[in-house]
């Protein structure tokens, strides 16, 4: 088997390198299905991707710690790790400065096509002016000062507290049941799998945190704007085309309301992002005073304290990334940055299943695991 690791949030050491570890890949996969802190695996800020190993791995190697050095100017890192007993982990990290999650998986799928010696199915389109505000030319935009003096000042660091990490697999049947439950209240004629799943996790995580009822809580999510613009961006657009949306309420209201009401909160914020809203936000970004970034960073930290932050998307074609060894056995995040972050991937069997990779404080995770309504 092999295990693959992508991340489009922070930068890594640029060189490609290979190493071996004494751990068995099967043990790692089983561990990831429970409350396991990925730091004891040694894989940092990457995702995991799994294949059958086409060649015999080296054996008898001692464990290797992968402590990579973070450099603000780095944009790409790749690592291959062999496991005793068979299997490899292919790890890749990419700076969010150059690509969002959609483009990251575009790159990974194109790379795997090159490895199989087949033509790239979707050539990248570098349309640098596609998201440029109407009030600016490209030359004018390039004259704007960098918002930070040094990228190192604003690298998102992992939470200082220990996090428990679990992978929750939601079958297509379970997600259909959640949709049906949400539709019983007549607040909408349809909900997406993303909306009901985020609502379900947000409600139960907030309940497990046992917060004061008046505490404000948010669910943050990223929206791919490619199809929301008019005219839409082509699927091959390579770069960042994201907006960050959020739903806000109090802990008491969230825990006490129906799944339908919570899904409706998320749905209303998602549909609000049309072409006009996105273009207005682009104009505001260009007018933003760079000196405000330190204050904005602090404000974000405070807002994130009791939030749920949704990353990645089950729509990404992660299991189509075939380097010539067949479909991966699993795709996992090797680390969770902060309490409340949830990373979504399509389930390996497809058909609408989703893997939710979640990081919480150990106490909150233990409470969540004992919540039969969440697991059921």
Description:
- The protein is α/β, with parallel strands linked by helices and 376 residues long.
- 30% of the residues lie in helices and 21% in strands.
- It contains 11 helices and 12 strands.
- The chain has helices spanning 25-32, 101-115, 138-141, 172-183, 193-209, 251-256, 259-271, 275-287, 293-304, 362-369, 372-375; strands at residues 2-7, 16-21, 47-51, 76-83, 88-94, 164-170, 216-224, 242-250, 308-312, 331-333, 341-346, 354-360.
- Strands 1, 2, 3, 4, 5 and 10 form a 6-stranded mixed β-sheet that branches. Strands 6-12-11-9-7-8 form a 6-stranded mixed β-sheet.
- The longest helix has 17 residues, at 193-209.
- It starts with a strand and ends with a helix.
- Residues 1-15, 34-73 and 147-156 have low confidence and may be disordered.
Q: What overall geometry do the principal axes of the alpha carbons give?
A: globular
What's the average pLDDT? 77
Query: What is the percent of helical residues?
Result: 25-40%
The major β-sheet equals:
6 strands, mixed
Query: Structural class, judged by helices and strands?
Result: alpha/beta
Number of strands: 12
Q: Tell me the series of helices and strands, N- to C-terminal.
A: EEHEEEHHEHHEEHHHHEEEEHH
Count of individual helical segments? 11
| Termini separation | 30 Å
Using the CA coordinates, give the radius of gyration.
21 Å
Low-confidence stretches: 1-15, 34-73, 147-156
Task: Report the β-strand fraction as a percent range.
Answer: 15-25%
